[in-house]
Amino acid sequence: MSSRPDGETRRRLEYAHAKAAGFLGLVCSGSSVFGTSGSTVGRRAEGLWLRVSCHSRRRAPRPSSQGPLGAQQLIPEPVPRPRLHDTVDWTKDDWFYQADVFDFTGPAVSSTPGLHADPGLEDNWWSDLKNALAGIATAPGTKITLRPTWIEQVFPTYLGIPAPANIERVTGHGDLQWANLTAEPLMILDWERWGLVPVGYDPAVLWVSSLLVPAVADRIRAEFSDILDTPAGRIGQLVALAEMLQAVDRGYYPELAPHLVDQARELTGVAPPQGPAPGLVR
Hints:
Layout: H1 7-24, E1 29-34, E2 40-45, E3 48-56, H2 67-74, E4 84-92, E5 95-103, H3 123-137, H4 148-159, E6 169-172, E7 195-198, H5 201-208, H6 214-223, H7 225-228, H8 231-249, H9 257-268
Antiparallel strand pairs: 1-2, 2-3, 3-5, 4-5, 6-7
Helix pairs in contact: 4-8, 5-6, 5-8, 8-9
């Protein structure tokens, strides 16, 4: 879900970023790049990238087996991602800050989670992505991404059907959308949410993020048909659709709304409920 920071948040993030750069002895250049979550900012420091995130103090400290540090330790080496060089965290007032230093990579396929044009990715890119997700699946997941209680709420609220009694999970990236993927070569960015996700959820998130570009959406369904066309994979698709319908309900991605409704109806045989719903937290 995209949530660009307001002015006060931008200033707080930029101040924290400058503080982290000074502490780590990094000289940054170029413009600040704010993450699609609205809680991160990054800048280049020669061949490195300094990324600072800000969250409620209630989330401090982050377990070392989770987030970027956990990914560096537990995700298999062949999975393409920027290498983590250093990490530091601190608290100030009501906020918890985390600064991570990564290898600098090329730009993401899209500056936003959703896709608006075919990026023309080569066959080997798709093969590399499939191999990467298979590699991630072999890692031990140390947290549940997408809480069962959230799933129990969003299925009837946004899909009009009861939540499944059992959800098969696998270790996954947890936020596999186009702002977190590079093209040449493939790199998977932003490992904040990785953990145990519903089977099929990762490719399904990429699929729902591509519905405005049918050729790419169809390619994803074809590449990952061995997962998405299984009963467990169908549930992963429904979770991704419910999550994106919730985002639309909150005012994001309005252009995706009719496509999401059509796909949900096709999968469930039920027209999704329309209109606003109470806020739910993943």
